[in-house]
Amino acid sequence: MKIIKEIKKEGIVEVVPETLDDLWHLSHIIEPGDNASSKTTRRIQDNTGDKLRSDRGVKKTFYLGLNIENTSFHLFTGKLRLTGTITKGPEDLIPLGSHHTLEVKLNTPLKIIKTRWPRWSIKRLNQAIEASKKLSAIIIVIEDDTATIGLMRQFGIEYYGPIKGHVSGKRIIDKNRQKNITDFYEKIIDSITKFNGIQNMVIAGPGFVKNDFYNYLKDKHTDLAKISIIESTGAGGRNGISEVLKKGTVEKLTSENRVAQEMGAVNNLLTQIGKNSNKIAYGIKETKNAINLGAVSQLLILDTIVPKYNMGKLMDMVENMKGEVMVISSEHDGGKQLESLGGVAAILRYQIA
């Protein structure tokens, strides 16, 4: 993410999203009531008399401004859509005040205007800018002849796989077994090397295949071995990846990795709840009360809750009283666990009645 213009007095920030992570961040920075504008392409009905063109319309590209009513980020398609009423555009093509959906494009400038930029929004924008300079981590969980890859993204885990091999069991006589193992490992490596600039790699799984794969890397792909560590899990596949995250392994490797930090924070919250701690609040009503009393040391809030309950001012209150605010992504297991508690919770400085 790049900021190409900032006029603080007018609440204007113009950015260029560069990655899928940036679109995800923007989906939570842009809120109902904001104004956003960018280039868009829309099919306009043609009235020249050409029957075919009239039916299908003609694609026109122009600059469009919207008063935002709704935002939606679609993880699997990688699309961020902003819906609202048109405030700026060519009036001969589109009537002002009509509804439109603006799709935010990568590497295309987007201007955001807010009447007030909450501190947490500015913080999130800066996080997105810093994150774009950093490298990702990869978790590979291997079990027998199946591998699953989890790529660490700002919005959560992006899964790849399963990658399947054709490795027979040790008790089965197969003269091609070693070749099949090598082919399987190279297949995994081909998948890994599609991603540029991976800084850390965790090789995990419930058995000994992870160790064999690591030894293979040390022998044949020393560059990958140097950035890898081994971690044991009780399960394979996505459950194994979740285990690695809960252990904080990735957090130790990349202490600033947001997803691992979020999973660790939710895990700590659940541990405190399990101990019947009296320094915990969860749910909208209880947490708001704790914030108003100045009792919150750490606030955990689901990203979807922020605009839904207009939590910006309360989040600023927590930070003004030297508390920590952590916005938790709804796209990973930690977010889903927080959602089951009402989407918002807090670690308290002291017990409240």
Described by strand count, sense and barrel closure, the largest sheet is: 7 strands, antiparallel
State the shape.
Answer: flat
Q: What share of residues are in beta strands?
A: 25-35%
The radius of gyration is 24 Å
The DSSP helix count reads: 13
Description:
- The protein has a seven-stranded antiparallel sheet with strand order 1-2-7-3-4-5-6.
- 34% of the residues are buried.
- Helix 1 packs antiparallel against helix 3 and helix 9 (258-274) packs across helix 13 (333-339).
- The protein has 13 helices and 16 strands.
- The protein is flat and about 75 Å long.
- By secondary structure, it is α+β, with helices and mostly antiparallel strands.
- Strand 1 and strand 2 form a beta hairpin.
- The protein has helices at residues 20-29, 51-56, 119-131, 177-192, 209-220, 222-225, 237-247, 249-253, 258-274, 284-292, 305-308, 312-320, 333-339; strands spanning 2-7, 12-16, 35-44, 58-74, 79-88, 99-104, 110-113, 137-143, 146-153, 156-164, 200-205, 228-232, 280-282, 296-302, 324-328, 344-348.
